[in-house]
Write a structure and sequence with these properties.
There is one protein chain. The protein has 172 residues and is α/β, with parallel strands linked by helices. It contains seven helices and four strands; from the N terminus they run αβαβααβαβαα. The protein is globular. It starts with a helix and ends with a helix.
Length: 172
């Protein structure tokens, strides 16, 4: 909601105050709908670690991620991702997994593999805050099957799932 110039000024103020012995990594999580070449130049200049919120293929993403006018945002997100790719900017992705996602495990995995995200975080729909219920309630078998379908892609190295990668690191 703020322009790149805001971050330029903020990053400069932080750099001025952080001291020479302090290392800092700027991280931004975004829906990518506004990413253009100016944003990409900022990300490159300041080595910003970038996360994209995208829930998978258009049918899954657009079901919940809409503009104020009710239109899906998938096409806008993909335009932003294309700008990142054109600038060689790596990014990870975070996807909300709902009951609608579960039967589409293979298409979901292929989407993120082709997207080229360095890592995928799965945020499972849950009852919390403004959400009094979860679409995943009573979907335990489908949930387990979804994860089983993703595992071969992770084992092959084509898809890095944040939570499983972290669990494997901790066990190791």
């Amino acid at each position: 909601a703020v322009p790149p110039s805001f971050y330029e000024a903020a990053f400069a103020a932080i750099a001025q105050r952080r001291g020479a012995r302090t290392e800092l990594q700027h991280c931004i999580q975004t829906n990518a709908t506004l990413i253009d070449d100016t944003w990409c130049e900022l990300f490159v200049r300041h080595r910003v670690k970038l996360g994209i919120s995208i829930d998978g293929p258009a049918d899954l993403h657009d079901h919940h991620r809409r503009t104020r006018h009710g239109r899906g945002t998938h096409a806008q997100v993909m335009r932003g991702v294309a700008r990142l790719q054109a600038h060689g900017i790596p990014f990870h992705a975070i996807a909300v997994v709902t009951a609608a996602t579960l039967p589409q495990a293979e298409a979901f995995a292929q989407f993120f593999i082709e997207l080229g995200a360095t890592e995928l975080g799965l945020n499972f729909d849950e009852a919390e805050g403004a959400n009094p219920s979860s679409s995943l309630a009573g979907q335990e078998d489908a949930h387990a099957a979804f994860l089983r379908a993703l595992l071969p892609h992770m084992r092959s190295g084509r898809l890095v799932l944040r939570e499983l990668a972290q669990a494997f690191r901790l066990v190791a």
